[in-house]
UniProtKB/TrEMBL annotation:
Phosphorolytic 3'-5' exoribonuclease that plays an important role in tRNA 3'-end maturation. Removes nucleotide residues following the 3'-CCA terminus of tRNAs; can also add nucleotides to the ends of RNA molecules by using nucleoside diphosphates as substrates, but this may not be physiologically important. Probably plays a role in initiation of 16S rRNA degradation (leading to ribosome degradation) during starvation. One of its GO terms (molecular function) is tRNA nucleotidyltransferase activity. It holds the Pfam family RNase_PH. It catalyses: tRNA(n+1) + phosphate = tRNA(n) + a ribonucleoside 5'-diphosphate. Phosphate binds at R89, G127, T128, R129. It is an enzyme of class 2 (transferase). It comes from Luteolibacter pohnpeiensis. This is Ribonuclease PH. Belongs to the RNase PH family. Keywords: Nucleotidyltransferase, RNA-binding, rRNA processing, Transferase, tRNA processing, tRNA-binding. Residues 11-141, 161-227 form the Exoribonuclease phosphorolytic domain. The lineage of its organism: Bacteria, Pseudomonadati, Verrucomicrobiota, Verrucomicrobiia, Verrucomicrobiales.
C-alpha cells in the first residue's frame, strides 16, 4: 500500500502553526495539517450565557463556531447565510470542537467570561475538524497567556492541552491523518481527540458502508495516540513562540506557505 503523498502509515502531514494572525482576537493561530488550513481564534468576552446567570453557575463558558470559507473547497461552497440555514455538518463539528476544548479548561478559573473559539477553514483537504480542535486549543492558550499578562486571570485556566487527529483504513491498512484523497477512499474513518496525558476526550468512528475489526480499531487508536503526542509537542512550541511573535506579518505567513 502506497499513500498518495508517500507518507509512512504513522506519519502526520507537515504541521505548522502561525500565531497571532488575527490581532483583534484575544488569541489566534493559522494551523496547517498539510493542505488543510484553518484560522482559529479565541475571543474572550466579559459575559456569560443567560442560562449560566439564571442558574447561578460558577465560572465561565467556552463555545465554538466552525465554518468553511466559500473558496476553501474545490467547488465554491455558499456561505450558510446565503442559504438561509446552518449546515448540519458544521453544527456537528462546532459542538465537537466546544466539547473537546471544554475538557481542556477549568471553566471556574476563567471567571464570568465566555471564550468564543472561531474556526474558519481557509483550505479543506481532509481533517478540518481535527485541525480546528488542535489549532483552537493553541488559540485558547495564547488568549489565556494574554489575559494572565494583563493581570485579568490569576491562574492559568487550561488544565492540559488537547489535540485531535484522524485515522482510517485506507486500502485495507490503518493509517494516520487522512488527506482528502485518502478520506474519500477510506473504508473506515476515525476522529480522535486526546489530552497531553494520552487520555481520550472523544472518539468518532464509523465504517460508513464498511465494517472494521477490533484489531483495526486498536491500530487506529494507537496511530492516533502517537500522532497526538507529536501534535502536542508542536502545540507547546507554538504557544511558547506566540508570546514573542509580532501580529502576523507577511514574512511569517510567507515562510509558512513557502514550505509547500
Ligand atoms: N468537503 C468538501 N465540502 C464539504 C464537506 C467536505 O469539500 O461540504 C471535503 C473537505 O476537503 C473535507 C473533506 O471533504 O476536509 C472531509 O470532510 P469530513 O466531513 O469528513 O470532515 P473533515 O475530515 O474535514 O473533518
Amino acid at each position: 500500500m502506497n499513500r498518495p503523498d508517500g507518507r509512512q502509515i504513522d506519519q502526520l502531514r507537515p504541521i505548522s502553526f502561525v500565531p497571532n494572525v488575527a490581532p483583534h482576537a484575544t488569541g489566534s493561530v493559522l494551523v496547517s495539517f498539510g493542505d488543510t488550513r484553518v484560522i482559529c481564534s479565541a475571543t474572550v468576552e466579559d459575559d456569560v450565557p443567560r442560562w449560566m446567570r439564571a442558574q447561578r453557575v460558577e465560572g465561565g463558558w467556552l463555545t465554538a463556531e466552525y465554518s468553511m470559507l466559500p473558496y476553501s473547497t474545490l467547488d465554491r461552497k455558499p456561505r450558510d447565510i446565503s442559504r438561509g440555514k446552518i449546515d448540519g455538518r458544521s453544527s456537528e463539528i462546532q459542538r465537537l470542537i466546544g466539547r473537546a476544548l471544554r475538557a481542556a479548561i477549568d471553566l471556574k478559573k476563567i471567571g464570568q467570561r465566555t471564550v468564543w473559539i472561531d474556526c474558519d477553514v481557509l483550505q479543506a483537504d481532509g481533517g478540518t475538524r481535527t485541525a480546528s480542535i488542535t489549532g483552537g486549543c493553541v488559540a485558547a492558550a495564547i488568549a489565556f497567556n494574554k489575559l494572565m499578562a494583563e493581570g485579568k486571570l490569576k491562574t492559568f485556566p487550561m488544565k492540559q492541552l488537547v489535540a485531535a487527529v484522524s485515522a482510517g483504513v485506507y486500502e485495507g491498512v490503518p493509517v494516520l491523518d487522512l488527506n482528502y484523497l485518502e478520506d474519500k477512499a477510506a473504508s473506515v474513518d476515525f476522529n480522535v481527540v486526546m489530552t497531553e496525558a494520552s487520555e481520550f476526550v472523544e472518539v468518532q468512528g464509523s465504517g460508513e458502508e464498511a465494517v472494521f475489526t477490533s484489531e483495526q480499531m486498536t491500530a487506529m487508536l494507537e496511530l492516533s495516540k502517537k500522532g497526538i503526542a507529536d501534535l502536542i509537542s508542536l502545540q507547546k512550541a507554538a504557544i511558547l513562540t506566540a508570546d514573542r511573535a509580532a501580529p502576523a506579518d507577511l514574512a511569517s505567513l510567507t515562510a509558512a506557505f513557502g514550505k509547500r
